[in-house]
Amino acid sequence: MTAQPQASHFIDGAYVEDAEGAPIDVVYAATGDTIARVHEATPAIIGQALAAAARAQRDWARLMPVERGRILLRASAILRERNRELSELETLDTGKPLQETLVADATSGADALEYFGGMAATVTGETIPLGRDFVYTLREPLGVCVGIGAWNYPTQIACWKGAPALAFGNAMVFKPSEVTPLCALKLAEILHEAGLPAGLFNVVQGRGGVGGALVTDPRVAKVSLTGSVPTGRKVYAAAAEGVRHVTMELGGKSPLIVFDDADIEDAIGGAMLGNFYSAGQVCSNGTRVFVQRGIKDRFLDRLKTRTEAIAMGDPMDEATQMGPVVNAAQMEKVLSYIDTGKAEGARLITGGARLNGPGFYVQPTVFADVTDTMTIAREEIFGPVMAVLDFDTEDEVIARANATEFGLSAGVFTRDLQRAHRVIGQIEAGSCWINAYNLSPVEAPFGGSKLSGVGRENSKAALEHYTQIKSVYVGMGPVDSPY
Ligand code: NAD
Q1: What pLDDT is attached to residue 475?
Q2: N or C: which end of the chain has fewer CB atoms below 10 A?
Q3: What is the CA(208)–ligand 1 centre distance, in A?
Q4: How far apart are CA 10 and CA 3, in angstroms?
C-alpha cells in the first residue's frame, strides 16, 4: 500500500520537492508499514513559501470579499464530492477508522470552508459619531498566518485554520504534524482547483525546527498552533518576541460529571465518545469521569459491557469502531500510563493491554476508584484510557473538576436543568457540553482556558483572531490647534 504524494510541499500553487531536507517516513498505524516518505522543509523551501504567501496576500486582501468566499464554497463542495477518497487518506495518515473519517474529517473541513466562505462578505466595520467629527473602523486582514497542526485531525485542523484565514483576506503557510503530513497537501490541491490564487495556501513539511523557523520569521503576522501544552509554551514565547498574534489550541484533562439522576445509558455513551473516539486521541476528551456514588456500580457494570463490545480492527472496514493509536511511540506512552494506573492502585475494569499482531492497537481501557492525585487523573494520556472517579456532592465535584491546570472542556450529565447550568457556570473550561459530549460544530466557538489555550477557533469568534481593527478619525471642521 502506498500513499506517496506527488512531492513533499505545496508552494505557490504547485507541488515542490527538495530532497536535501531530512526524510520523514509516513507509517500506517494499522500495519506498521511505511506508506510514504516526505522531506523536511529546508530554509530555502521555508523562504519560498513565506515569500509566495506575502506576495499573494496583497492582491487577495483587495479582492471583493464575496469573491473570496465563493472560492471557499467551491472548495467545500469538492471536499464533499471526494469525501470517500479523502477519508481513506485520513485513515492512512492517522489510523482512525473509516467509520469515523467518513463523517468527521473532510466533512468537518467542508463545514468550515462553507461557514467562513459565507461569512467573508458579511464583515463590516462601524461608525462612531463624535458630534461634528466621526470615527469609522475597518476590519483588515493580519497578513501571512502560520498554521501548525497536531496529528489527530490533520484535515480538520488545516481547514479550521485555513478557512477563516483565507476568508478574511490572509495568506497561510501550514505545517502539518510530521506524524501526519499527507492530508494538508490534498487540501492545498483542492483549494487551488477551486480557484484559489497561487501562494495563498502553502504546505511545508517538517518537525519542530521547521515550525520554529516559521514562527520567528519577520514576514509572519500570526501563529495558530494546535498541539500540546509544552509546545504551546515554546511557540507562544517565540511569537511574543515578534509581538505576533496567536491562537493556541492545546491539551486538556477535562472533567465529565455524571449525576445520579442522569440518563445512565446516555451518560455512558457520552463518556465512551469522550474517551474512545479516535482511539482517545481528542484534545477535548472527558478523561476524568466523575460518577456520583449512588449510580457507580450500575454505571461501571454497563460501561464494561458496552466497552467490551467495541469492534476493533481494520480501520478500512467500515464496521470497525476503533482503530490503532497513531504510532508506536504513542502506543508505548499509553501503555506506560496504563502501567502507572495499575501501580498507583486504580482498579482495572476492562482493557489494559495492546492487541497482539501488527499495528499499534491499545484496548479501550477503563479504570475505576481513581483518585485526584493519581497520575492518570492529572496528565493528558491521549489514548483510549478512561479514569472513573467517585463523588458525593455538587460543590465537591465542582472544586475537584476545577483542580487542574488545564481548562479545555467539560461535560455534565443530569436531568436537572437548573443544576446543569449551575454546574457548567462554575466550571473553568472553554468548550462545554450538557447531556452531550465532544460535538464541535463550526457554528460553536472552540478553545480552552487556563493552560489549554488562548483564542477561539470556529464561529463568529474566529473573526477576532484573523483580522485587526483599523480606526480612522475623520475631522470635519477646522483643526483646533493651540499653536
Ligand atoms: P505536539 O505539541 O507534539 O506537536 C504539535 C505541532 O507542533 C507539530 O506540528 C510539531 O511539529 C510542532 N512543533 C513542535 N515543537 C515546535 C516548536 N518548538 N516550534 C514550532 N512548532 C513545533 O502535539 P501532537 O503530539 O502533535 O498533538 C497532540 C497534542 O495536541 C495533545 O496535547 C492534544 O491535546 C493537542 N491538541 C489540541 C487540540 C485543540 O484544539 N485544543 C486539538 C488537537 C490536539
Answers
A1: 98
A2: C
A3: 9
A4: 16
Say if ligand 1 is within 6 A of residue 150 CB.
Answer: yes
* 81 catalytic per annotation: no
Phi, psi of 222 (to 5 degrees): -150, 145
Q: What is the pTM of this model?
A: 0.98
The alpha helices in 141-200, defined as continuous H runs, are 154-167, 183-193
CA distance 119 to 482: 46
- Strands 365-368, 347-350: pairing kind: antiparallel
Nearest to 164 by CA among 234, 114, 214: 114
Identify the residue whose C-alpha is closest to ligand 1 atom 15. 208
With CA atoms as reference, report the closest residue to 168 among 471, 478, 454, 464: 464
Active site residue 457: yes
* Helices 183-193 and 154-167, packing angle to 10 deg: 40
Q: How far does the centroid of ligand 1 lie from the alpha carbon of residue 177, in Å?
A: 7
Q: Which atom of ligand 1 is nearest to the CA of 150?
A: 26
Cα–Cα nearest to 157, from 440, 452, 464: 440
* Cβ pair 179, 95 in contact under 8 A: no
Q: How far apart are CA 283 and CA 382, in angstroms?
A: 7
> What separation in Å is there between the alpha carbon of 39 and the centre of ligand 1?
19
Q: Examine the residue annotation and report whether 222 is marked as an active-site residue of this protein.
A: no
Element (DSSP H or E) covering residue 138: strand 133-141
Ligand 1 closest atom vs CA 229: 32
- pLDDT at position 1 is 80
Which tens digits make up the pLDDT trace of 184-219? 999 999 999 999 999 999 999 999 999 999 999 999
